[in-house]
Design brief:
Elements: H1 16-37, H2 44-57, E1 70-71, H3 78-81, E2 94-95, E3 105-106, E4 116-124, H4 134-147, E5 152-158, H5 173-190, E6 198-202, E7 212-213, H6 216-220, E8 224-233
Parallel strand pairs: 5-6
Antiparallel strand pairs: 1-7, 2-3, 4-8, 5-8
């Protein structure tokens, strides 16, 4: 007579592989939730704070809140966030005799932006300062000698690093960069450059010359004013 063997009972609980699988699925779900949450960035400061918190959670030390070992993290869609929408008042429209497709409201478009054909000099500023040192002022005066006798328009573009302007006379980084560019422009005019040739631009922190700021020396590379010569001349804009 054959003896039937009893089947062994399955151990209690889920198998070990199911625990690992469940952890993986949960992590994937969290990853996609983060992607959806960051798909539309509306506040630059909140995004940087969030990214800094994530890095700190994984043991990263540093970031833009820690000086001088900082690394500036620029969002990929920064250009879209810089779009400035201005309301147009009804009295701002020009009247045209031609009815046109859209009625009597004429539209003016800027169809010929300047092309920079020759980069000029760069003048260094101290951190959070809009005052030129004696050495840099002398360099501006020497460079002005090369610019005399021409009619090309010169763009004087101010830059600054991301060091906070709290406690300074400047309202924000844009004001600081404009004050720097204005200081160089005034010195060029004082050294014989036609004021009509000078175009002052404040770039603030939006066009850094270096995106990394691992130490003070690298950070100072953004505390400059650069001169750019364009393909436009003052004769084009004479009435």
């Amino acid at each position: 007579m054959a003896v039937k063997q009893r089947k062994s009972e399955a151990p209690a609980g889920a198998p070990a592989w199911m625990v690992t699988y469940g952890d993986m699925v949960t992590l994937l779900l969290t990853f996609f939730v983060l992607l959806v949450a960051m798909s539309e960035v509306k506040e630059d400061e909140r995004l940087r704070d969030f990214m800094q918190a994530v890095r700190e959670a994984f043991g990263y030390v540093g970031g833009e809140r820690h000086l001088p070992t900082e690394e500036v993290q620029v969002p990929k869609n920064l250009d879209e966030m810089r779009v400035l929408v201005l309301g147009v008042l009804p009295e701002s429209f020009g009247e045209a005799n031609d009815e046109g497709v859209h009625g009597r409201r004429d539209r003016v478009e800027y169809i010929r932006p300047a092309e920079y054909y020759q980069p000029g000099a760069r003048f260094q500023f101290a951190e959070l300062s809009a005052e030129l040192s004696a050495a840099e002022a002398a360099a501006v005066a020497r460079y002005a000698e090369q610019l005399r006798g021409h009619t090309t328009i010169i763009e004087v573009r101010g830059h600054c690093s991301r060091v906070p302007v709290t406690g300074t006379p400047f309202r924000d980084h844009m004001e600081l960069s404009i004050r720097r560019a204005r200081a160089v422009a005034d010195l060029l005019i004082a050294n014989g450059i036609d004021p009509r040739r000078i175009h002052v631009v404040g770039a603030g922190t939006t066009q850094p010359l270096t995106r990394t700021a691992a130490d003070i020396a690298e950070r100072r590379r953004n505390d400059v004013v650069e001169l750019l010569q364009t393909d436009h001349t003052i004769d084009e804009f004479e009435p």
